[in-house]
Automatic annotation (TrEMBL):
Transmembrane segments: none annotated. Residues 1-25 form the signal peptide. Belongs to the membrane fusion protein (MFP) (TC 8.A.1) family. GO terms for cellular component: plasma membrane. This is Membrane fusion protein, multidrug efflux system. It comes from Novosphingobium mathurense. Residues 57-198 form the Multidrug resistance protein MdtA-like barrel-sandwich hybrid domain. It is found in: Cell envelope. The keyword Cell inner membrane does not apply. It comes from the Bacteria.
Length: 392
């Protein structure tokens, strides 16, 4: 190869290299998935663990001592107030009533005799046929006879009451549990063990506890107008059963304790639920979903778009009008379903980055688009909340 040919080849390679360098494409802006935020009406709820209590509970106990002659109810059945449940052997109490009635008749006969003698002595003492002392004794005897009649009447009433107690009746209406005593068992007055237990479950109570801080925050939100209720006298309560299903009938919050438990810092609450089908059983553990109210103009941000910085503060990345990334510090008050209720840091119309966050830094230019895995937020509508657990 001659020197001239070699120079021409070097020149050609240099020209080709220059062309490749000038035609190299510029890097494209990364693509991110964004959700445009809008204001919504949100129903705020709080889930609290609770236990079902019967509205009325009565432990059936004997008022007298004796042997059970028979049981007159089916275990687990519905009994009415006044229905006879047990019969105790009544022969001794019938005999006691007969004795008391005989003593009363004897006392009544004695009253007549002593009163007639006192009347005769009253006439005789006027003519000094008997002494004043004898007349006074006759009057006292008549009065004692009358007092004895009153005492014997009380004895008859007591014996009749004891006889009636041989038929043990249901004090309230409700479902009766198992019988702890059988026919032939000896029962006694004042025994600690009940014969059976009756529970009224046509309506039941659900007892829960809520922190004092949550109650104060709720009252402040209602007072400021940021939260509204359909009725101001009592809050709605929904019930989540142990199998995860929602009880079809809503209850009402009826009672709140007047003081705060100094050990736990919580307040006891009681809700009432109708129980027409007997689905709610006393002692059952449930979750009471307290419907606090409806928050107006709320911002719900997908949880994928909210992260935490090293200091634990909630942050979000948004795309501004120039398609540049901005970092916002936000206040995520509580989770609602798969979203966060954001009360500070975001506003309607913000484009929140929910996909393509890796490698994106504040100030970078991006290409926003619809997210692939998350459905964009719809127009404002009443959003039903799932579990909402406030931070303690």
């Amino acid at each position: 190869m001659t020197f001239k040919n070699a120079s021409s080849m070097v020149l050609a390679l240099a020209l080709l290299a220059g062309c490749s360098s000038s035609e190299q494409p510029q890097p494209q802006a990364p693509k991110v998935g964004v959700v445009k935020l809008a204001e919504q009406q949100v129903e705020l709820t709080t889930d609290l663990p609770g236990r079902i209590q019967a509205s009325e509970t009565s432990e059936v106990r004997p008022q007298i001592s004796g042997v059970i002659r028979q049981r007159l109810f089916a275990e687990g059945s519905y009994v009415k107030a006044g229905q006879v449940l047990y019969e105790i052997e009544d022969a001794p109490y019938r005999a006691a009533l007969g004795t008391a009635q005989g003593n009363l008749a004897n006392a009544q006969a004695s009253v007549r005799a002593t009163q007639l003698q006192a009347d005769r002595y009253r006439d005789l003492v006027e003519i000094n046929a008997v002494s004043k002392q004898e007349y006074d004794n006759a009057v006292a005897a008549a009065q004692q006879a009358k007092a004895n009649v009153a005492s014997q009447k009380s004895a008859v009433d007591s014996a009749r009451v004891n006889l009636n107690f041989t038929r043990i009746r249901a004090p309230i209406s409700g479902r009766i549990g198992r019988s702890f005593y059988t026919r032939g068992a000896l029962v006694q007055t004042g025994q600690s063990d009940p014969l059976a237990t009756i529970m009224s479950t046509s309506s039941v109570y659900v007892d829960v506890t809520q922190s004092a801080a949550q109650i104060l925050n709720l009252k402040e939100a209602l007072a400021s107008g940021g939260l509204s209720r359909e009725t101001s006298d009592s809050a709605r309560v929904k019930l989540i059963l142990p199998n995860g299903k929602t009880y079809p009938i809503e209850g009402r919050l009826q009672f709140a304790e007047v003081s705060v438990d100094p050990e736990t810092g919580s307040v006891a609450l009681r809700a009432t639920f109708p129980n027409p089908d007997g689905m709610l059983l006393p002692g059952m553990f449930v979750r009471a979903r307290l419907v606090e109210g409806v928050k107006q103009n709320a911002i719900l941000a997908p949880q994928q778009g909210i992260s935490r910085d090293p200091r634990g503060r909630a942050t979000a990345l948004v795309v501004n009008a120039e398609n540049k990334v901005e970092m916002r510090q936000v206040k995520a008050e509580r989770p609602i379903g798969d979203k966060w209720l954001v009360t500070e840091g975001l506003k309607p119309g913000d484009r929140l980055i929910v996909e393509g966050l890796s490698g994106v830094q504040p100030g970078a230019t991006v290409t926003p688009g619809a997210p692939q895995q998350i459905t964009a937020a719809r127009a404002p509508a009443l959003a039903k909340s799932a579990t909402a657990t406030e931070k303690h």
